[in-house]
Design the sequence.
C-alpha cells in the first residue's frame, strides 16, 4: 500500500520557518501536496496584493524537500481548493489552528477526508512563527456591527432609541481602512495600548478609547459602538437613547452561541470606501425609519439568542434597508450590483459599517462564494 496523500492549502506569502515546520509536520502523515491561493484570489479576499507573486510562491514551496507537489488552486474564494481537493482525493486535509474553519471541516466530512488541525510545533528550538506576527499585527480586535448601526448617533436615536449589535473580531485578517471595521478606532487603541486590550473594567477602557479618539472640539464624533465593539468581547447589545454613550449594555460571551454565529456569518471583500466619498452628504433621517432600524436591531438580537438563522437573516436585511433609507450613500452602484448577485443565495445581508465599500456581510447556512469567515473574541 502506498503512502497516504496529505493536502494543505494557503497563501504562503512571506515564506518563513513556521511554514516550513508546518509542511514538515504535515508530511509526517504521508506524501504532501500543497495548493496555494492565486494572486487574484488573495486580492479578492484581502483587498491587497501579495508580497510575492503566485509564481514566486509556487517556486519556493516546490523547492521544499517535504513537499511532493504543489500548484496554484483552480478556484476562488476561501474554499478555492475544492476542485483540486476532489481531483487529488487525499486521505488527510491538514490545517493549522489559525486556518481551521467550520466550512473546511464540513467539506472534509462530506468528502470522507480526515481533517487534522496542527498546533504549530516549531522546529527544534526555533520560535513559533506566523505571517501575522511577521507583519507585526497586534492582538487588538476589529469591530463589526450586525444590526442597528447609526443608532449610536444622537441625530438618529433622538427619533427612536434602540440598540446597535456588535461583535469583537480577532485580527486574523488585515481589514482595510474605510471598510467599516473600525480601523480608525483600532489605530487609536494601538496608540493607547500597543499590543492588546489591557486587563480591567472593559466599559471604562472603552470610554477611555472613545474620549481619546474624540477629544473636545471634535467636529465629527466617531460613534461609541466602535470603541465598545473593539473592547467588549463577544456579542454586545448597546442601547442608545439620544446620547453618544449607550444607556445600557448587554454582552454575551457564551462560546456555543458565538461559534454558531461564526459558522453562519460570511464577509465578501469589496474595495474600500474612497477617501473623498462622503456617506453623510445626503441623509434623510426621520422617525419612521429610525423606528424601523430600532425594531430590526431588536429582532436581530432576539433571533441570535434563539439561534434562529432565518429570523436573523431577515432582521439583518431589514436593519440594512432602514439604514439605506436614511443614509442612501451607504450603497453605491458597484456595491449594489455585487449584492444583487448574492441575494437569492443567502438568508440576509448588510454592508459593514457606514458603507460606500468595505465588506458585504451575509447570513447563510451554506458557504458563500468568495467570502471569508471571522473569529469572535471570547471573554
Sequence:
Amino acid at each position: 500500500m502506498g503512502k497516504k496523500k496529505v493536502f494543505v492549502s494557503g497563501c504562503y506569502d512571506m515564506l518563513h520557518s513556521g511554514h516550513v515546520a508546518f509542511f514538515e509536520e504535515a508530511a509526517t502523515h504521508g506524501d504532501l501536496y500543497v495548493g496555494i491561493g492565486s494572486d487574484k484570489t488573495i486580492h479578492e479576499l484581502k483587498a491587497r496584493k501579495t508580497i510575492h507573486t503566485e509564481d514566486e510562491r509556487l517556486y519556493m514551496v516546490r523547492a521544499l524537500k517535504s513537499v511532493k507537489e504543489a500548484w496554484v488552486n483552480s478556484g476562488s474564494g476561501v474554499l478555492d481548493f475544492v476542485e483540486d481537493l476532489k481531483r487529488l482525493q487525499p486521505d488527510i486535509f491538514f490545517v493549522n489552528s489559525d486556518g481551521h474553519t467550520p466550512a473546511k471541516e464540513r467539506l472534509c466530512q462530506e468528502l470522507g477526508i480526515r481533517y487534522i488541525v496542527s498546533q504549530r510545533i516549531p522546529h527544534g528550538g526555533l520560535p513559533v512563527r506566523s505571517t501575522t506576527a511577521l507583519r507585526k499585527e497586534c492582538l487588538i480586535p476589529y469591530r463589526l456591527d450586525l444590526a442597528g448601526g447609526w443608532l449610536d448617533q444622537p441625530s438618529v436615536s433622538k427619533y427612536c432609541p434602540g440598540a446597535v449589535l456588535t461583535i469583537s473580531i480577532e485580527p486574523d485578517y488585515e481589514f482595510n481602512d474605510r471598510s467599516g471595521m473600525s480601523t480608525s478606532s483600532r489605530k487609536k487603541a494601538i496608540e493607547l495600548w500597543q499590543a492588546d486590550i489591557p486587563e480591567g473594567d472593559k466599559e471604562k477602557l472603552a470610554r477611555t478609547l472613545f474620549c481619546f479618539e474624540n477629544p473636545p472640539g471634535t467636529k465629527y464624533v466617531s460613534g461609541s459602538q466602535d470603541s465598545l465593539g473593539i473592547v467588549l468581547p463577544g456579542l454586545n447589545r448597546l442601547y442608545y437613547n439620544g446620547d453618544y454613550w449607550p444607556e445600557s449594555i448587554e454582552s454575551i460571551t457564551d462560546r456555543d452561541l458565538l461559534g454558531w454565529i461564526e459558522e453562519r456569518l460570511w464577509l465578501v471583500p469589496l474595495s474600500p470606501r474612497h477617501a473623498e466619498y462622503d456617506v453623510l452628504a445626503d441623509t434623510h433621517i426621520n422617525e419612521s425609519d429610525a423606528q424601523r432600524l430600532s425594531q430590526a436591531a431588536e429582532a436581530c438580537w432576539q433571533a441570535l439568542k434563539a439561534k434562529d438563522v432565518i429570523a436573523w437573516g431577515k432582521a439583518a436585511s431589514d436593519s440594512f434597508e432602514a439604514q439605506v433609507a436614511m443614509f442612501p450613500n451607504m450603497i453605491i452602484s458597484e456595491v449594489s450590483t455585487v449584492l444583487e448577485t448574492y441575494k437569492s443565495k443567502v438568508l440576509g445581508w448588510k454592508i459593514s459599517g457606514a458603507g460606500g465599500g468595505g465588506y458585504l456581510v451575509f447570513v447563510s447556512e451554506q458557504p458563500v462564494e468568495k467570502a471569508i469567515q471571522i473569529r469572535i473574541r471570547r471573554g
